[in-house]
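pls read this stuff:
=====
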Amino acid sequence: MVFAAPNQALARAEEVLGSDPSPLHASVAHQVIGIWQRDWGDLRLALDHLRRARDLGARSESTDREADALAALGVALVHAGRTRQGLESLERGVAVSSGHTRAQVLFRRAYASWVLGHHRAALEDVRRAVPVLRQAGDVIWTARALTLRATVHLALGAVERADADFTAAEALWDTTGQEHDKADAVESRGLAAYRSGDIPAALRLLDEAQERYAKLGTPTFMLTVRRCEVLMAAGLAPEALAEADAAIKVLDGIGGQSTRKAELLLAAARAARHAGDAHTAIARADMAVRLFAGQRRTWWETHARLVLIEARVAAGRGSGRLVADAAAVADRLASFGAPAAPEASLLAGRIALGLGWRDDARRHLEVAARSRHSGPPLARMTGWAARALWARAAGSDRRVLEACRRGLDVLDDHRTTLGASELRARATAQGAELAGLAARASLRSGGPRRLLVWSERWRATVLSAPPTRPPADPALLSDLTAFREIAARAEGARMEGRPVPTLEREQRRLEREIRSRSLHMRGDASGDGYRFDPGRLLERLGDEVRLVELAVLDGRVQVLLCAQGRVRRFEAGLLADAEREAEHVQAGLRRLAHPGAEARLPVVEAAGRRLEELLLGPAAAQLGSGPVVVVPPGRLHQVPWALLPSLRERVFSVSPSASSWLRARETAPPPSGRQVLVRGPGLATGGAEVPELAGRNGSATVLEHDEARVPRVLEELDGAALAHIAAHGTFRADSPLFSSLRMADGPLIVHDFERLDRSPYRIILSCCDTARFASVGADELLGLVTALLPLGTAGVVACSAPVNDEAVVPLMLTLHKGLGAGASMAEALRDARAALPGDSVHQATGWAFSAFGAA
């Protein structure tokens, strides 16, 4: 009962102890309380109850009772880090038991062996236990044994064997009422999905397990460890670190298992390393190594040492000693049959390369490279990364490029299994090293055109295909509706000066639910095989249009100027300097949005000149007189490009990639020509341009006041030729897909836009911060504009900074006049800027807006 209804079992056991029970019954009751405390409470109390259960079992003159208590005590002692005592208790349990009871004790010993990382011993005990349990018709213990065997198979990388055992165990669990064991089975299936490379399924199953545990009211420390693994694989390392640290705090508070604490510390160390926090990773990994060593858990200790070495290297501590340490870890992991062995060999090779130890590097990298043809995607990428590193050391750019291509192809295949655009974007971080190696090799061996190809190979790849549409999930739709209502109520309370902590907590909970359901989506289409063709780009540019793609190599901006049938390269400034200057410009534009800051105008204009030197360098003098397309890296999309002197009076547009610009250029407008004008609440001018635009165009659909509600707005936006939305925009750097436009019933968020069958062909967002993005992964962008581009939008006008609402009105009216005369978005925006008054507020407003795409 303790694994079917834990809290009820605990209460029943306490009742039994209060009724003057016999030694036999008292032993059972103490064991139940001990198991409950062992798995979900205070381990010291658990040991006390389990020792009493053992002693009472011996007094009961039932060897089976004594053996059962010995086995439960042995597992608790192992979890407490008293490994020798725990194994002795389990050995004693095996010795005094027989038949069915011995099979149950063998299962416990197998479980303890798995905790300790003794996988082959665990498999041997399970192999002996399963036939006996089956013959006895013990469904529950047979299912437990199969689940454990599957988990051990996973630790050894035998995913197919694990799947078979999980399937058999699940069929048995369906016939029982063991709710905790069922939740554990769902959790284990989530782990199996992760090990097979199916991240969305893993997240869905782990969330389902969490819900099941929550109904039972039991803590979930092992689930946290597994969830952290999946979050890291999904590129969500900061979240994994936060979850692991929070679980450690809870575990310490209840005096829980030291084995689980060590595992959580290891998860936190891995997460910190992936998040780029080397010092936190070192601290957590060092503590984990010490705990694992004290618990005699060599398998786990070796994995923790791998993370510790990786973190020390990331902190700049490369040395000959670390090469030897990494090599020793690799050998030990290989002897365990651990899938992480190639990662350790790659690490040893990488450190050796940095020290100039070519012979050592070659030996370790060749071992790591063996993993490139089999195993899960990230293991294969490890192999191709090792291959590429050695090819670079050997001076073969051709082999570097081939290895990088093969490795990135593996990652491409992996990303197509991900339905959520956020996961697709973040997953590209796994390929950042390969992309960088390829870019350097392409420049050395093939010049500017080949560098352009590789720059495009790994730039804004998430925008190359529409995201998977969210499912018609009633729970998701309900959460979205509730989120809007709560967010609107919270906003209203803030404006009235009322406290909103309760509403904010509920809003955060709903955000977590929406995001979680979105991350469960699986990719519904394979890659379309698209490969960027520079010849096709040059042909579409013709003789007049220049495309400027900014690549970054070793921290410096490389300008690739594509025009008149060729690609030329110019070297500009340092990316870090450009980022700092862009931040200063953004601060200046924020001040200029308010009257009285005229003195800042020359300062901002001077910053624009410095930005041009850093970003375009000598290429600025080669732009000709025609239109320009700017393709910046993700970290520079906050630049207000209209402020650069060479672009200020020119027709120009911005695109996340050259491929994205080509797709936008070739996107046909919808035949209907339908136009939609939306006016949200709370604008200083009341969205004053909308009524005037509606008067000019009597056929346009106008949504304002109570009609500007999210469901109706989405319905009208779907498939429109032109949409204009005047509404307050909010960019969420912490969660970019919750960036929003304020409607009458609450925020219209990126998750809503992704439900459109086809977003408007052209869309104008005349509000603050709508062109702000989060740069994630290798070179990906998350935000409002990037949600629209893959869904059929060919042109967007949006704003990268806070602007003055009143100054926006004349800009928008002139912009629409140009569009009505047949101009493109970029042409109309250039003319609208030129027509503005010359004061600082209007000038800053014009500079803050950019045209994206090609329509």
Q: What stands out?
A: The longest helix spans residues 432-457. The chain is about 60% helix and 10% strand. The chain has a mean pLDDT of 89.
